[in-house]
Amino acid sequence: MVTPDAGGYAREMGVHQLRVVVEAEDYEKAVAFFRDVVGLPVEETYSSDGGAEVTILGAGRATLEIANPAQKDLIDDVEVGRHVAPKIRLAFQVDDTPGMTDRLVGAGAELVAPPTVTPWHSLNSRLEVAAGLHVTLFAEGTDAY
């Protein structure tokens, strides 16, 4: 099995960026939440005929985490204590899990589980946010808690 360096192998294969595309019924609310509350910068916006709108927000380095059902259930058990996540969950690495959790809850996110130390030595919280998404906030390392 080949273990490529971070991004090098993917770049050789022609992959330069990962985008997660989310349909949001309340587009303005979702954009405002991720832009103004989470703090993701706007990289591009487009408008088209028929009222079509898209905003592309920068989120730093992207990875695609593929988990089998048992791993998804394990993460739910560790972070929340029960099975709650939909098939797609966003995870944002942050500097301050409790602070960012409070910030998102203050802006209307629903707290699903408070910051919790995980077996993989990170401090994770879980929220339900705009566009019906589940979000994990995580800070890694012993300085995270």
Short structural description:
The protein has helices at 8-12, 27-37, 69-79, 97-106; strands at 42-48, 52-57, 89-93, 110-117, 122-129, 133-140. With 145 residues, the protein is of the alpha+beta class.
Summarize this structure as a short list of keywords or feature phrases.
6 strands, globular, two-stranded antiparallel ribbon, alpha+beta, 4 helices, 26% helix, 2,3-Dihydroxybiphenyl 1,2-Dioxygenase, domain 1, 2 domains, 4-stranded mixed sheet, 145 residues
What report would you give on this structure?
It contains four helices and six strands; from the N terminus they run H-H-E-E-H-E-H-E-E-E. With 145 residues, the chain is α+β, with helices and mostly antiparallel strands. It folds into two domains: 8-57; 69-144, Roll (2,3-Dihydroxybiphenyl 1,2-Dioxygenase, domain 1), CATH 3.10.180.10. The strands form two sheets. A four-stranded mixed β-sheet has the order 3-6-5-4, covered by helices on one side. A hairpin with a 4-residue loop joins strand 4 and strand 5. The protein is globular and about 50 Å long. The relative contact order is 0.15. The model has no long low-confidence stretch (mean pLDDT 89). Pfam families: Glyoxalase_6. InterPro entries: Glyas_Bleomycin-R_OHBP_Dase, Glyoxalase_6, VOC_core. This is VOC domain-containing protein.
